[in-house]
Amino acid sequence: MSDLNDPRVLFAAERTLLAWNRTSISLMAFGFVIERFGLFLELSGREEIKVFQRHISFFVGESFVLLAAFIAIFSIWQHKRILRSLRPVEIPSGYNLYAGVWVNGIIGFLGIALSVYLARGFL
């Protein structure tokens, strides 16, 4: 429980949540690029290494996307723990506490959907 009685604690927690949001979006984009680069190598590469490279890029890219989805969802849990520790005096009246939580939840869901889409295209 915070003893500062200062709304800046809430805003710092929200900045941290949004930083995790940016991190998960970046990891998701990086994973997508890795996975699609394997498809590019399959289309333009030599016959001997096509399949091997495609499998590696798929699994590495898929891992990044799933890691990003996990980070987005885990950061929601972490942020809710922080919110429970705040006192009412530290929360400005009328302030929406759950906008960032909703955004991270949507990002996590979209990461899982992207992972399913990539897996469906691979198989």
Automatic annotation (TrEMBL):
The answer to keyword Transmembrane helix applying to this record is yes
One GO cellular-component annotation of the UniProt record comes to: endomembrane system
The DUF202 domain extends over: 8-84
Q: What is this protein called?
A: DUF202 domain-containing protein
Residues passing through the membrane, by range? 56-77, 97-119
- InterPro entries reported in the protein's UniProt record: DUF202
Q: Report the membrane topology from the UniProt record.
A: Multi-pass membrane protein
In which compartments does the protein localize? Endomembrane system
Q: Which organism is it from?
A: marine sediment metagenome
Pfam families per UniProt:
DUF202
Keywords linked to the UniProt accession: Membrane, Transmembrane, Transmembrane helix
